[in-house]
Amino acid sequence: MEVNLVLMIGFVSLLVALYVYLTSNNKFFERFPIPCLPVEPFFGSCRRLVLKRTSFNEFVRSNYEAFPDAKMFGMFEILTPMFVIRDPELIKRITVKDFDHFINHRPLISADSANSEGSTVMFTKALFNLRSQRWRDVRTTLSPTFTGRKMRQMFTMIVECSENMVQALANPAGQECEMKDLFIRFTNDVIASVAFGVRINSFRDKENVFFRYGKDLSNFSRLHVILKMMGYQVFPKLMGWLQMDIFDRKHVEFFTELFRQSVKERQHHGTVRPDLIHLLMQSSKGTLRHQPSEEPEEVESFATAKELNDEKILPKHPVMLSEGEMVAQCFLFFLAGFDTLATAISFLVYEVTIASDIQERLYEEVKQVSESLEGKSLTYDALQGMRYMDMVVSETLRKWNPAPGTDRVCNQDYTVPGDPDIIIPKGASVFIPIAGLHFDPQIYPDPDRFDPERFNAENRQKIPLGAYLPFGIGPRNFIASRFALMEIKAVVYHLLLNFEFQRSERTTVPIEVAKGFTPLKPEKGIYLQLIPRKTN
């Protein structure tokens, strides 16, 4: 009897201690003169998201709309209090002008683990998760890979993958396809070629190892992945101490060995390819140099994340990357380019299928460019000159941006002027609600409508700098935005040149988006009919 009583008291004490731990920070925002979303034990402000009652994008958008007159408000991501910034001007200050106050992302892996040179966790070495000076060194080392000059060198690989897709779709004619599956095969082939120097054709070899592993890696709804991510939210130090990687060991070992073999073969045969591995090899030898372009300044896509001056300056001393760090950059590049870009392209072709007038206008531009090339393959410069294509891509990334938000950590107390002033304390997390900004009717009238004219030469000038963020903003923007845009436009060009997109019996209008804390994706797929165009 006494033993049972002791066990019961111990159990109740444990529950009380857990409750105190989970609610100890709930009154964090009461000392700030800003509104705050309701907070609940364990769920924080995210009950609807955790229980899969809403999509991540809709969750961010609805929270943004809850306080229309506030420049910022508070919310809790499980246990973490976050300052959500609604004002584009304040976003610009935090991410650009006063970047030194907000250098780092909020680490998924605990800080102690992330900075450990002996860490076996692949994610800790990826550029996104690097911090402070190490991030600066690796970022400036990698930035030459994604300049316009390097894009021209990589472009032939993307054209080759696009043409492989067109050939695979030519027979049988007039087929129905699920767009995400179609474009994931395309992005898989591109990233395998550009990041790892491996030529594959996922339309012929449908279950190649790259494709299978890519689908595994991009499936964040797997139970063990969800549990690991929640573990890092609730018990970050414990998870870091246990060296629990988000990625499966077999995937990490596969890509590590692939990287080693590629480097070995290139060193043995003296092979040079204009890809990520070549740049990383130059970096490891201390021979990397920026080469100023003598070509005329190119016309940038509107959505391109703007390069800052400090990205053009390499560190004074060569940055020596470990093998693990080099593999991590290739690994992350593959993961980002595999699923995320396929999603963006899928939503683009969906929108132009629903709006036949937009598809026709885009096709006319594609046809005009094709005729100007007189039978030659598409060139990088010809692609960059397609203005309506750029408008359509820019609007797709506004309405269907794969990243609903981004974050920063305040590394020193930061004063937001106002009446009264608000001091964001050192160590606090800041969240930028991209999905909310992109659907703000004050910035984008009738935001649910797909309208490329928002990004014509006149209207794009009216969009505040901090209100259109498809690839983030400031020095922490997405380093490969030029590459991503080039890839999207190239495959759309080749498909529209050869096929017309039409609805099929399984086309869902309006589209249903998957609920829960998962990346943007259609719940039931995007099925469309591809009708071959008549050739003269």
Q: Which bin fits the share of residues in helices?
A: 40-55%
Give the averaged pLDDT, no decimals.
84
Tally the helices.
Answer: 19
Oligomer: single chain
Strand content: 5-15%
Query: What can be said about the biggest beta sheet?
Result: 4 strands, mixed
Order of helices and strands: HHHEEHHHHEHHHHHHHHHHEEEEHHEE
Q: How are the strands ordered across the major sheet? A: 1-2-7-4
Unreliable stretches (pLDDT < 50, length at least 5) are 111-118, 309-314
Q: Based on DSSP secondary structure assignment, what is the total number of beta strands?
A: 9
What is the CA-based Rg, rounded? 24 Å
How far apart the termini lie comes to 92 Å
Structural class computed from helices and strand pairing: alpha+beta
Shape verdict = globular
Question: Can you put this structure into words, describing what you see?
Answer:
By secondary structure, the chain is α+β, with helices and mostly antiparallel strands. It is built from 19 helices and nine strands. It has helices at about 1-25, 45-50, 55-65, 90-95, 110-115, 130-140, 150-170, 180-195, 210-215, 225-235, 235-240, 250-270, 275-285, 325-355, 355-370, 380-385, 385-400, 435-440, 480-500, and strands spanning about 70-75, 80-85, 175-180, 405-410, 415, 420-425, 430, 500-505, 525-530. The strands form three sheets. The protein has a four-stranded mixed sheet with strand order 1-2-7-4. Helix 14 packs parallel to helix 19 (about 480-500) and helix 15 (about 355-370) crosses helix 19. The longest helix has about 30 residues, at about 325-355. It is globular, with a radius of gyration of 24 Å. The model is unreliable at about 110-120 and about 310-315 (pLDDT under 50).
